[in-house]
Amino acid sequence: MSTGDPSYSLYGLTEEHQLLRASVRELAEDKIAPRATEIDEAAEYPWDVHDALRKADLLALHVPEEYGGPGADRIAHSIVVEEIARVCASSSLIVAGNKLGTMGLILSGSEELKQRYLPQVAAGTATFSYGLSEREAGSDAASMKTRAVRDGDSYILNGTKCWITGAGVNTHYTVMASTDPSRGPKGISAFVVHADDPGFSVGTKERKMGIKGSPTCEIYFEDCRIPADRMIGDEGTGFLTTLKTLDHTRSMIGAQAVGIAQGALDASIAYVKERRQFGKAIADFQGVQFMLADMAMRVEAARQLVYVANASAERGDPDLTFLSSASKTFASDTAMSVTTDAVQLFGGYGYTRDFPVERMMRDAKITQIYEGTNQIQRMVMARQLLK
Fold first, then answer.
1. CB 24 within 8 A of CB 84
2. Helical H segments across the chain, by residue range
3. Dihedral through CA 220, CA 226, CA 231, CA 234, nearest 10?
4. C-alpha pair distances (Å), 194 with each of 189, 198, 206, 226, 296
5. Secondary structure letter of residue 89 according to DSSP
């Protein structure tokens, strides 16, 4: 499913990308949009959506062709996340979260490890979560307390990870643990943990403001013994793998944010054409028109920045770190502002669950927080500028 050289993205998408968007939008409107409200209300994982995405070969777009995957480029993947998030942010995390969980394996894993897991991911029989954050080590991830101690041909893991997207649903976890606390970030290593490994368990689901259809839980390691050959990369390289992973996945959160914002914009345009006050559609009022113009302008600017960041990731450009953080930050700030404006345009109705913009506003908020808060992103960008 290669979509060619993405360097054109500064100017426009290829016909293949446009066809992909059309097909994913059709699937999203048919299979996901009718379920979005129910998914949010029930706060349950949408297995029907999961199966629909698997059958459409959209569950693991990022897996290279040599491991049985579609081998789609980063822009194609962002289009898919965007189009799903346009109708249901929770469902878009099925795709985006699987990439986050497996990107470290793709970037840093041995060939033997890739051959062991990536064909399963490509086939949809394995899905991955990502285990980095802890209660006292969120933005300061290098302060993690989870330990991995070598014992013969195994490592024994002890500790807790929190805010784990897809926990309890996914079959595998990429987990960061300290193998040498005296070395700080350089003592962190990455491992593949199976959901059925003895000593591994999943806590209760968090009660969240938004993305309720995507389970978020703590995960626990109590003398969890895993084979040493499940280490991703060399010992002590886990934190570097984390940084490289986030360079490739933060723009996916940007894509999710763009999708949420576009969904809110589309709903707003349709609503203001129908809603009448003072004898005419409120779309005829200049104040409303200016709000829509500003919303659409910000959404399109965010979309283009996300595409540029993904094209940069595809090429391996040196400015990837800056662009990835910039796209995530700008798009998520846009999603929050656009959904807030959408609720305003809907008036009293916007504050009710009878219309989708209330859900979209709640969903948008998390995009400013996870995979690094936007305050951390600004620190990352500034450091890149001041190198």
1. yes
2. 15-27, 36-42, 47-55, 74-85, 89-108, 111-123, 238-274, 286-315, 320-346, 357-366, 374-385
3. 110
4. 16, 9, 22, 9, 43
5. H
Whether 371 sits among the annotated catalytic residues: the reply is yes
Tokens of 265: 């914009």
Q: Exposure string (b/e) for 23-32, b if CB count within 10 Å is 16 or more? A: ebbebbeebb
- Catalytic member of 82, 218, 314, 371: 371
HSE-up of 271 (CA within 13 Å, CB side)? 22
Are 319 and 309 in contact, with CB atoms under 8 Å apart?
A: no
> How far apart are the C-alpha atoms of 146 and 159, rounded to whole Å?
4
What is the C-alpha to C-alpha distance for residues 223 and 155, in angstroms, rounded to an integer? 9
Amino acid of residue 280? K
CA distance linking residue 22 with residue 35, whole number of Å: 20
Tokens linked to 302: 């965010």
Q: DSSP assignment, residue 57?
A: T
From first to last of the 387 residues of the chain, give the pLDDT tens digit. Answer: 444 444 444 557 899 999 999 999 999 999 999 999 999 999 999 999 999 999 999 999 999 999 999 999 999 999 999 999 999 999 999 999 999 999 999 999 999 999 999 999 999 999 999 999 999 887 887 889 999 999 999 999 999 999 999 999 999 999 999 999 999 999 999 999 999 999 999 999 999 999 999 999 999 999 999 999 999 999 999 999 999 999 999 999 999 999 999 999 999 999 999 999 999 999 999 999 999 999 999 999 999 999 999 999 999 999 999 999 999 999 999 999 999 999 999 999 999 999 999 999 999 999 999 999 999 999 999 999 998
pTM of the predicted model as reported, rounded to 2 decimal places:
0.95
For residue 132, give every residue at least 6 positions away whose Cβ sits within 8 Å of its Cβ, in sequence order, or none: 141, 144, 161, 176, 242
Q: Which residues are within 8 A (CB) of 350 and not within 5 positions of it... i.e. 6 or more apart?
A: 342, 343, 344, 357, 358
Distance CA 362, CA 384 (A): 31
The whole-angstrom separation of Cα 133 and Cα 140 is 9
Cα–Cα nearest to 366, from 167, 195, 150, 216: 216
